[in-house]
Amino acid sequence: MLQKQNTNINFAQGLDTKTDPWQVPVGKFLSLENTIFTKGGLLQKRNGYAGLPMLSGSPNYVTTFNGDLTAIGTNLQALSAGYGSWVSRGNIQPLSLSTLPLIRNNLNQTQCDSSIASNNLVCTVYAELNNSTTTYKYVVADSVTGQNIISPVTISSADATYGYPRVFLLGQYFIIVYTNKVVSTYHLKYIAVSTVNPVIATAAADISTSYAPASTGAFDGAVFNSSLYIAWNGASTSGIKVTSLNAQLVLTSVVNPDPSHVATMVSVTADSQNAVIWVSYYDAGGSTGYTFAINPQLHSILAATQIIPSGTILNITSSAQSGVNTIFYEVSNNYAYDSGIPSHYIKSITCSQAGSVGSAVTVSRSVGLASKSFIISGVIYFLVAYQSPYQPTYFLVDLLGNVIAKLAYENGGGYLTHILPSGIVSGSTVQIPYLYKDLIQAVNKNTDVPAGSQVNGIYSQTGINLASFNLSTRVISAEIGNNLNLTGGFLWSYDGYTPVEQNFFVYPDSIEVGTSTSGGSLSDQIYYYQVTYEWTDNQGNAFRSAPSIPVKVTTTGGNTSSNTVHIPTLRLTYKTANPVKIVIYRWSAGQQVYYQVTSIVAPLLNDTTTDAVSFVDTLADASILANNILYTTGGVVEDIGPPSFSSVFLFDDRLWGITSEDPNLLWYSKEVIEATPVEMSDLFTMYIAPSLGAQGPSGNLLCGFPMDDKAILFKKSSLAYFNGTGPDNTGANSQYSPPYLITSTLGCSNQSSIVFQPNGLMFEFASEAGNQIWLLGRDLSTQYIGAAVESFTQNATIQSAVNIPGTNQVRFTLSSGVTLMYDYYYSQWGTFVNVPAISSTLYQGLHTFINSSGQAFQESPGTYLDGSNPVLISFKTSWLNLAGLQGYIRSYWFYLLGKYLSPHKLSCAIAYDYNPAPTQTSLISLENFSPAYGSAESNGQEVVYGQASPYGGASDVENWRIFLDRQRCSAFQITVQEVYDSSFGIPAGAGLTLSGINLVYAAKKGWRPISAANSVGGQQ
To answer: Are the C-beta atoms of 113 and 119 separated by less than 8 Å?
Structure first.
């Protein structure tokens, strides 16, 4: 006679997907959905999520600012709880930036172009200046790692004056097109370099033996439908010619769509939607511009149409889509007060296939074209160059002139005088080569003590970098200084009114001062002037740019002089609704402090539609004594607009950022105190070496996070920290420690996965076996805390991680649509399903998320609906092999103990002998009942005594016995799923709580019988 026995399974151990499913210990679960662990051993249903107003667009990140829910995609939206809807606060472009050195040597590169193959090989062509001799070369490298594949090869047949090559990707070839001179005749030639084996290059072949070159590029091309379409300026005033080269390197016959005009610069683009090739060009002789359209067979669609009536054009590019060609061209407009200071700007004009020409529009002032235009997701972008002796910079802008990214601040190559490099588009990423000044002679702004004078001349050597802009990404935010600071192509700052650039893109430069011997009260002495851009945000924070270079002037008018200060306006800015102030400060030999001379009550305001403003200073020294003084007085470090950051975090009351262009460099702000904004400077940086300790290179910085008195730094497979307090505003007294390596082989590249809980930092580690969740303890030890949910994280990315106040829970939203819940008190994992969050945050103390459809949801305590869908408990036990892995038992029944809270049904499924497909299913139907006599709750809601009908009621204990259909087995598995039936007539409620299972069984043998067909070897 078998002896019955029982065993209890309490619900106190959570999920376990790390162990072999057949050997998961009794009491752990293989699946556990929509439960929380408020009490030990008890499974309780989680709260539901109620819908918030629908978002517009497709935001992919949600956070809070000043307690307001804020969603960010390509615009920023704030939830107005009183208004009951989302309010758009302005456009913003999430963007990630990275750079890669392509060419570095002891010579200057003066022109470049690149193309990238599908195998990530990048071919770069460039001009190189050695003393007064220019040579033209190409090089092939890996566009991901920078590894050189083919060392620089000289294009020996390129003309020394007009060689300037371009490169295109055509099939399995890099096509390098350049100018060649044969005796006195210029040819347009090409060579083809194999993308499969770049050692192989074809011999130079003619595209045209009749070509009139120009250094600005009298030819261009575009690849469309496996052919390269090339347009060039024909010799002997023969006009514009076009041909095509197919992937088999066969040229078509040359056509001459416009024999009447010549061109010194040409732009070719393809309208892929309409299968049209557009050619736009500038005729320097007639100072006019034209465009025409042809089909892929080189037949005319639109004859040459004038687009630029007259004027000198410095560069041209174009992009076409949906039957319209948009042409961008660069013109010069020197400052009115000094013709020697160039101030370029960019205009655009459109032309349709029907020949309708739009009006010229000024797109962007103070910059010139630095790349060909390109299209991503229907929007036209291009790189522009800001020229300055002290802060040459590139900016990525859209067709409206909005700045999208800031690149190579103070290291830009300046205005391009030769051909424009291409933007290589792949999906939502564009890669652009650019000239980079990598060797700069430092200049002291203050050598003429005490006021300072500028040392003339900056020597710089130019190399070539490759910039990669990814426009399909999401921001990372940090709230400090009464602003929400957001990563992107530059650091964005949101003050509750509109997102703008943090600080300013550039400080005032090219300041000039002229003096007059009448009209003022200035005494005869030496004066110095400095100028700042200043702006006050919606929170009352005052932002100030770095001061301009001091400009000296001496008055000799017998104490009646006046000085006229000429200042370029700030034309690159998002700060237009609330205009920037231009503030002038003056130092004199008799009053050796920089005092403000512009009015406080009637400020000199910036105007983005003009290039410069002037101010006449007539005030005597005594008249400005009570005015503001320049904020850098006393050695205070000047404020600089920060670069692009890949990650931001807070530590030591400062904002920290990992620079996108040098991911080994941390920028940090001045200490943020009351009523001051974030103020950053290129003098407040910390270099983190790629190698820490003795274990070799550890890679670039990827993200950071504060923990206690430490800033934790994460690389791909290493961790480090530093601590201490930072410098004062003069840069002195810094007590930051050097970075210390944390002994581990872990790292993190996903800042959205990092979350603090009482035991330390939890974070996602991208291992070779897949993503994992680890814990960095407060003692700097590491623990694989996410092992139990490895099957969920392995092939999914953490989208957000939030520590829920008032609970012991950390919730991780995954890209798979599942939310992982970790209870750090009980050390148990569970899952929330039907919560497909792409980003989440805390709003009003409650977990709040958005999904990919633009819907927002907030946790709703005491309700059990996700929108309109009921929240339902479900679990699957381990395999219950009570006599061992291959033991043999007789299982009679089991008891399921719980507490009834609201109407529900339970589906109980049983699988046997390690076959996961259940063969037994039972539906447990409960009868609705009223609360027991004196009960305080009904369906989770408080009721008035005596309200229930009839008086009194059944017990709320749920105690069910389920018999097993197959009693003899090695193991069985129980799956319980709560079922909601609309016939209940009320919304889904708390359902039930579950306290455990009691199994009744008898052990037959320590092994189970097995058929002879499944037995082999030995004597049977």
So the answer is: no
Range of the domain at 986: 5-47+873-1005
**Are 111 and 26 in a shared domain?**
no
Measured from the Cβ of residue 29, the count of other Cβ atoms closer than 10 Å reads: 26
Please answer whether residues 211 and 179 qualify as being in contact, where contact means their C-beta atoms are separated by less than 8 angstroms.
Answer: yes
User: Is 38 in the same domain as 111?
Assistant: no
Residues ≥6 apart with Cβ < 8 Å to 850: 55, 59, 60, 62, 71, 837, 838, 839, 840, 856, 857
Length of the chain: 1020
Contact in structure between 531 and 580 (CB atoms under 8 Å)? no
Is residue 981 a contact partner of residue 905, using CB atoms and an 8 Å limit? yes
Amino acid identity, position 461: Q
Q: CB within 8 A of 937, min separation 6: which ones? A: 931, 943
Residue 735 main-chain phi, psi, to 5 deg: -120, 25
Domain harbouring 961, CATH code:
2.60.120.260
Distance of CA 467 to the CA centre of its chain: 14
Q: How many domains does the structure of the chain reveal?
A: 3
Contact 859, 49 (CB under 8 A): yes
Residue 461 confidence (pLDDT): 79
Select from 756, 728, 679 the least CA-distant residue to 483. Answer: 679
Report yes or no on 797 lying in a domain: no
Question: Is 85 part of a structural domain of the chain?
Answer: no
Residue 990 falls inside a structural domain: yes
Report residue 386 as tokens.
């800001």
- CA neighbor of 414 nearest in space, from 381, 383, 443, 444: 383
Question: Torsions phi, psi of 660, nearest 5?
Answer: -70, -35
Domain boundary (568, 600, 624) is at 624
Select from 571, 606, 624 the last residue of a domain: 624
Pair (39, 113) in one structural domain = no
pLDDT digits (tens, 9 = 90+) for 371-424: 999 999 999 999 999 999 889 999 999 999 999 999 999 999 999 999 999 999
Give me the chain's average pLDDT, please.
92
Of 613, 416, 427, 469, the closest CA to residue 96 belongs to 469
Asked if 184 and 302 sit in the same domain, the reply is yes
d(Cα 397, Cα 430) in Å, to the nearest integer? 13
pLDDT category at 454 given cuts 50, 70, 90 is: very low
Residue 658: which residues within 8 A CB-CB, separation 6 or more? Answer: 645, 646, 647, 648, 665, 666, 701, 702, 703, 704
DSSP structural state of residue 790? H
- For residues 41 and 115, membership in a common domain is answered with no
Confirm if 300 and 276 have CB atoms less than 8 A apart. no
Write out pLDDT tens, residues 534-553: 999 999 999 999 999 999 99
CB atoms within 10 A of CB 359: 7
Alpha carbon distances (Å) from 390 to 355, 442, 456, 502, 955: 44, 10, 11, 20, 82
Q: Which residues contact 159 (CB under 8 A, 6 or more apart)?
A: 178, 179, 180, 181, 186, 213
pTM (two decimals): 0.92
Does 229 fall in a domain?
yes
Check: CB of residue 93 under 8 Å from CB of residue 74: yes
> Can you give the pLDDT at residue 849?
98
Q: Which residues pair with 379 in a beta bridge?
A: 376
303 and 171 in a common domain: yes
Over the range 75-101, which residues count as b (16 or more CB within 10 Å of their CB) and which as e?
bbbbbeeeeeebeebeebbbbbbbbbe
Return the CATH number at 302: 2.120.10.70
Element of type H or E holding 791: helix 790-793
Please report, for the domain that includes residue 520, its CATH number: 2.60.40
Tokens of 696: 């070799």
Residue 137 shares a structural domain with residue 27: no
Q: Which of 922, 918, 906, 838 is nearest to 874 (CA)?
A: 906
CA 582/CA 604 separation, integer angstroms: 5
Residue with tokens 């100028």: 531
Pair 418, 543 in one domain: no
Cβ–Cβ contacts within 10 Å for residue 466, how many?
A: 25
In the three-class reduction of DSSP (H, G, I as helix; E, B as strand; rest coil), residue 405 is classed as: strand
